[in-house]
Predict the 3D structure of the following.
Amino acid sequence: MITIKNSLITAGTASLLSLGSLALTSPSYAFNLNLSSWSKIGDVNPISSTQATLNSGTFDTAPTGGGAGSLEDFLSITPGSLDPATSTFGATQGSAIKQTFTDIKVGDVLHFDYSFLTNDADSAFVTINDSVIALTASTPFTYSFTSAGSYNVGIGIVDVDDAIGASQLIVSNAKLDAVPEPMTILGSLTALSFGVGMRRRFGRKKSASSGV
């Protein structure tokens, strides 16, 4: 009977540890991001939970160059950092949306689909804190976070070298793939401690029954 109990305890502990190992290697969790809850500046219309349309070359856009009400001020980036390296006069005006993520973990991934429509030298971009990343083609955007912490994330479009020529950036299906919390490690250690403790308990009972 004691042998059967020990076998059951061993099997149960192994099962718990196996579940813990599966949890440790489980895939990340994908969270849909509600774009309508992001802050916006300039001509962002229409906008819904799953899609936002950002426009340039219209009367409702915001100026660039820094200072209150500018795109750089809105996005908390360095004035002039939206100027493409190949431009003559730089960025002039545009539109953007932004969101602050306060609990990013190493390995979290931001991604979204987009379509950039322009017949001009206009520019579309993503800002991650003070970094500016150009969006150069209509392909999914993916960014993997390599450090934990808070991040200001912006998505925008600007007129370049002039203030005419309408362009459009359509953003959709924004998601954040978040790595699992490391609570499964604690669960595995707890299961291991439980199994060792039960083995010792039944070991003492076996010794007592045998008269040792």
